[in-house]
Amino acid sequence: MLEAKCLKKAVVPSTLIEDPSPGSLQCTRLALHVSEDASSCFIYIASGPHVYKLQVKLGTSFVSTGKDSLLIPEHTELIASSLVNRCPHRAEIQSIVLADVQSHGYLVLGSVDPYGHLIVSKLDGSGKDIDRLTYSVLPHDNGIGEGSWSGLCFCPNQWSMTAVARSFCKTIDIYDQDIHIRTLRPLWYPTSLNFLQNVGNGNQSSILAITEGSQLSIWDLRMKENGGCVHRICGIPGDTLYAVCCSSTGNVAVGGADRTVSIYDPRRWSSLSRWVHCSKFEITGLAFSTLDPDYIYIQGVDYEVFCGQWKESNKSFSFRGDSNWLGFSKCSDKDILAGWCDSGSIFIADVASDIDKLVSVH
């Protein structure tokens, strides 16, 4: 069973960001990385054409609950804050993603604006601002036309491969660093995308899951037939899906306007579970637990974030932001969550299993 070790709250200085840009419904403008000693975490947030870095102090503390068992946050210290100078976008950034390449001693930060302009920067793993390789890629149409939500994701075992989604253009561009590999053309407006893990075909990096309208579509980058689309799962017409995530065991979860989380087995694309109406409002963020893939973190439009066991449809704990979420993300290799509200508040939750707690006590 998973439980929250602590819930911290920090405030973004008004001198750094006076009035955050509103962004889109999807909360994809935050990424985080935990320091090696786990004493602090580095949070990257995007507002307007800029990316900012915050260093927030962590540490265990007594977890208190309020009405309806909601966790009550404890204020924590903001150690440092600065502007990341290697992201010169000309329009509002829609999504940022952080790839943890610790084996090489650096991080990879990707950002994309409404017109599909992608910028990828290598950052120092210790959190220091050291200049490293930065490259940018313009879409084939040079960003002409109406801007919209754009998203990106890195391949989990090949960080140089990047997928960039553009909603209004109905395109998914695949890049190997700054080289364009191919373009996928979904039927509807893409809203989220993620590379699959541990599919069992020996080459999981080639499979991409995309939510488009009310459908979940699966694409194999090695195939040419049907444009690369190998499977479609249709949801309720009119109920847009806003989030897709993949677990370490290969399962795929989707959620959206129907307030339901659906879990699929990628080997047969059969439904494993449906957690019906688990959220009061639309679901715009999902992340499987690293500690236990049977648990999933769900973020909704009503400021609430909760953790639950999807097989049993049981909630474990939850907390709320104090205003609309502008960014929400989970650390790639740890059960640490962070969310950014338009009030300027940053919420960080550190989660542990019962086994971890017993080990730490002894």
From TrEMBL:
Coiled coil: none annotated. InterPro entries: WD40/YVTN_repeat-like_dom_sf, WD40_repeat_dom_sf. It comes from the Eukaryota. This is Transcription factor WD40-like family. It comes from Canavalia gladiata (Sword bean).
